[in-house]
Structure prediction request, 317 residues.
Amino acid sequence: MSTQLDQLKQFTVVVADTGDFASLKQFAPRDATTNPSLILKAAQMPEYQFLVAKAIADNQAQASGKELLAHVLDDLTILFGLEILKIVPGRVSTEVDANLSFDAAALVAKGRHFISIYEKNGIARERILIKIASTWEGIRAAEVLQRDGINCNLTLLFSLAQAVACAEAKAKLISPFVGRIMDWYKAKEKKDFAPAEDPGVLSVKEIYSYYKKFGHATEVMGASFRNVGEIQELAGCDLLTISPNLLAELQKSEAPLARKLSPELARESKIEKLPLDEKKFRWLFNENAMATEKTAEGIRQFNADAVKLEQFIAAKL
Prediction:
C-alpha cells in the first residue's frame, strides 16, 4: 500500500510550505512556497548563513545605509527562491513586502523587480509565482502583472468575495488559509470542529466549486493547515501547500485516502454566480468579520517578521 502522501499526489499537486531545503528534499513536492516568517526562521539557521553572507557581499560595494539594507533583503528573498528551485521541479512562490499590500503600483514594481532578478539568474518567469496579499489593491496589481506574463499567488485569502475578485483578475493561483479560518471560529464559538465541518475546509470547497462551475482557470491551493484531517477533506483540490510536520504524518500513514474534490462534483453544485465590482467587493469583505480580521492580522504578522528580518540583517551590515 502506498503512503497517504503518495496517494494525495495522484490527484493533488503537493507544495511544501517551508524554506528549509532538507524538508524539500525529504518530501519531494512539485512546488514550494515561502513567506517572510519562513525566511526569517531559515535565515537564522546556521546552515543558511551562506545565503545571508552572499546577499550582503553582492551589494556592499554598490550601496549603503537603508538602500543597502533594501537591496540585501530583496536579494536574500530571491536567493532562497533560487536554492529552492534547485530542489523542486516546479515553481516557487516569492512574497512581496507586506507593507505594500495597499499600494497597487508599488506591488507591480516589486513584482517586476523580483522577476527581473530571477531572469538574470537564468530562471524562466513560468517557474515563479509573485505572492501578494488578497487586498483590493493586491488583486489589481496581480491583474497588471498577469497581463505582463508574470504569474501571481494571491495569499491571505479568507472569503469567496476575495476568491471571485482574484479569478476575474485572472490570477494564476490563490491560497485560501484553512487553518486560520478555523482558528477564528474556534476562538469565537469556543468549540472544536471535525474535519468535514471545519469552516476553513468548507470555505475552500465553496471556492473550488465556484471556480470549476463557472470555468475560472485560477488554481486553488489550500494553505495553513492545522491537522491532517483538513488535508484529507480537501484531497483533490488543485494544490495543497503543507508544512513539513504534516507532510511527515501523511508519509507515515498507509490508510486509504479518498478523493473528496473533483471538477465533476463541483460542476453539479448549487452555488450561484457572484456579481462583483469594487464597491460590492469592499462591502462583502467588510461584512465578513473573519475575513476582515484575518487578512489584516496576516498582513501585520508578515510585516512584523519582515521587520525582524530587517533588524537581523542590519546587525550584520
